[in-house]
Design a protein that fits this description.
single chain, 94 residues, mainly beta, 3-stranded antiparallel sheet, two-stranded antiparallel sheet, 1 helix, globular
């Protein structure tokens, strides 16, 4: 899947910026590969570019007013969706 992901991304440089209700802009991390057998956009075998904030960037309860996603070169996109979770912010058991 990684080869297919990078082949589809080609030379695209994707940038995602979240604007919170207070007006502050948060630049999310560089996209990473994600795959889902049952996807949000594609019905099966969905290959996606996922971005997320760094720990503490968007504390629980943050109100988002807009999300802007841009690419520095042509990139075919079939859809965009937002999914919010704090799973990456939770401490991992030792």
């Amino acid at each position: 899947m990684a080869e297919e992901f990078y082949s589809n991304m080609r030379t695209a440089s994707v940038r995602a910026v979240v604007t919170v209700a207070a007006g502050q802009k948060v630049i999310l991390a560089v996209p990473s590969q994600s795959w889902s057998e049952v996807g949000q956009i594609a019905k099966h075998n969905e290959l996606a570019a996922c971005v997320r904030g760094r720990p503490g960037d968007l504390p629980i309860g943050t109100s988002i007013s807009s999300i802007e996603i841009t690419a520095a070169s042509r990139l075919e996109v079939e859809g965009v969706y937002w999914e919010s979770t704090n799973v990456f912010d939770e401490a991992k058991p030792r």
